[in-house]
Amino acid sequence: MPDIIEFPLPASSDDPHWRAYCRLGDEYNHELIGTTEWDETPTDALIQAAAETDHTQRRYLAYVDGEAVGYARVLINHVDDPDAAALNVYVLPRHRGRGHGRALAERLVLDTAGLTRFETWPLTPRPVAGQRALTPPNGVGAVPAEHPGVRLAQSYGFALVQIERVSRYDFADPGIDPAVALAEAERVSSDYVLHAWEGAADASLQDDLAVLKARMATDVPSGERTVVEQVWDAARVRRMDEQILTTGRLFRAVARHRATGRIVALSELVAPRSRPDGLIDQWDTIVLPEHRGHRLGMRVKAANLIAVRDALPGARAIITWNAEENRHMLDVNEALGFRPVLAEASMEAPAPLRRR
Fold first, then answer.
1. 152 lies in a domain?
2. Where is 306: in which H helix or E strand?
3. What is the distance, to the nearest Å, from the Cα of residue 15 to the centroid of all Cα atoms in its chain?
């Protein structure tokens, strides 16, 4: 059996455990997308981890004959959901089938005793024709039933509650010129003013952004997931911006309602500062329900694509997540040129966590 160690956040990115942990994270991404575009430097990863204020994370490595062959982590949102944990276990493909994932999982069971609910989110290839697939209760979307991450989770009582579609947008191959999409959306949303910028949000916008961030937790389709309200205020928006900007470039586009002056739609993109050609993450995109039907989602997304394209001419692609049942947002993304590349299984288990 492997030697399982928990290690603290180090003072330096040269720490051997930290470098092994980051290397395994990159290997995980290589397995998923087949390229190094998602790689993150150990230095950037450490800066981000040290800047985190709302989550507590515990990290583990599995060593066999001195080689780190797998990792695990526990993530707890101690602001909004302190009695629940998100768990993740990964083992290098060449070391699977030897009980290493099970050993890591058993350590997580011991170290999370006392918590009441658990989540895990295995990222998988999209199922192909003829492959046995697992579907959530709402019947929308699927993941390969034999995926090792899914099987390990099921063996500890995790049930599939929702599927997230992971999509990719390639700047070199858009579905439509975002400038054209923006112009079309503007024609049916004249009651709203667009604002787009790079960097932290101005203080005058933070209260409205806090409302939108809180609504992201409750308004998006959730399948059978446990929905937990999040408490956002201007201070939390500032903290989030500060954390992102330690290593990233933050782009936002918002729509302001002319009649009320309130920000009612938002789209966010985060690009790695040290890797101009690295994958860009789509963060939140939301339109308040009472302002839907005016193509504001398309408007803010297209505007943000233009902003990133102009600011980062070497940018290659964006990755985004959407609930498979969120057909409206998928329609927007597909029209812009986002194409499905992966599936993510949202799985939950109640306490006590144990092997079934």
1. no
2. helix 296-311
3. 26
3-state secondary structure at position 16:
helix
Using CA atoms, how far apart are residues 171 and 317, in angstroms rounded to an integer?
6
pTM of the complete model: 0.95
* CATH number, position 248: 3.40.630.30
- In DSSP terms, which residues pair with 266 in a beta bridge? 254, 286
From the list 268, 267, 285, the residue with the least C-alpha distance to 220 is 285
**Residue-by-residue pLDDT tens, the chain, 356 positions:** 899 999 999 999 999 999 999 999 999 999 999 999 999 999 999 999 999 999 999 999 999 999 999 999 999 999 999 999 999 999 999 999 999 999 999 999 999 999 999 999 999 999 998 999 999 999 999 999 999 999 999 999 999 999 999 999 999 999 999 999 999 999 999 999 999 999 999 999 999 999 999 999 999 999 999 999 999 999 999 999 999 999 999 999 999 999 999 999 999 999 999 999 999 999 999 999 999 999 999 999 999 999 999 999 999 999 999 999 999 999 999 999 999 999 999 999 999 999 98
The region that residue 235 occupies, defined by phi over 0 for left and psi between -120 and 50 for alpha, beta otherwise, is alpha
Number of domains in the chain: 2
Dihedral (CA of 60, 62, 67, 69) sign: negative
Using alpha carbons, select from 70, 79, 80, 87 the residue that is nearest to residue 28.
Answer: 70
The first and second tokens of residue 232, run together, are: 């956002």
Tell me the residue range of the domain where 261 lies: 169-344
Provide, for the chain, the percentages of residues in helix, strand and coil under a 3-state DSSP scheme, each rounded to the nearest 5: 35, 30, 35
Nearest to 345 by CA among 163, 136, 148, 139: 163
